[in-house]
Amino acid sequence: MTPEEFNEAFALSQFLPGPNVVNFSVVFGSRFGGVAGAAVALAGLMGPPLIIVTILAMLYARFGDLEMLGRILIGITAAAVGLLIAVVAKMAAPLFRTRWDWAPLIAIAAFIGVAIMQWPLPLVFVVLAPISVACAWVTR
């Protein structure tokens, strides 16, 4: 595949609805093998994770009631939450450093509403989305 063909396939995969990686694998496979190539590329991308998750689901169905497994999953959950908080903090840091306008205030209000006040996410979204759009419209 030439660089131009790669860029074409990549642009097409971003334009199509769905995950870009899946779209790119189908486009890439179809370029080299038609419909069969697209099917093989999609199976090669999605097959191994599907098999792994299916095996893990069967193991959980068999051993899910073990107390030790419950403790392990609680620890994994805590680690995942910590990673999520770290990623959000890293992504939000430039926003808070470069300017302090309405956007960080909307984010803080959403956090307080959902995490601290434990209001339902759809309610917080319905209230804050129009406020955010209005603030963006006024500042432009």
Fold and architecture overview:
This protein is mostly helical and 140 residues long. It has three domains: 1-63, no CATH class; 66-98; 99-140. The protein is built from five helices and no strands. The radius of gyration is 22 Å and the shape is flat. The protein starts with a helix and ends with a helix.
Brief sketch in words of this structure:
It contains five helices and no strands.
Secondary-structure map:
Blueprint: H1 3-15, H2 20-63, H3 67-98, H4 102-116, H5 121-139
Descriptive labels:
flat, 140 residues
In angstroms, what separates the terminal alpha carbons? 43 Å
Number of helices: 5
Count structural domains.
Answer: 3
Uncertain segments are none
- Integer average pLDDT: 90
Overall SS class: mainly alpha
Largest sheet: none
In total, the number of strands is: 0
Helical fraction: over 70%
What is the C-alpha radius of gyration, as a whole number of Å?
22 Å
Based on Cα principal axes, name the global outline: flat
Query: What's the order of the H and E elements?
Result: HHHHH
- Binned strand content: under 5%
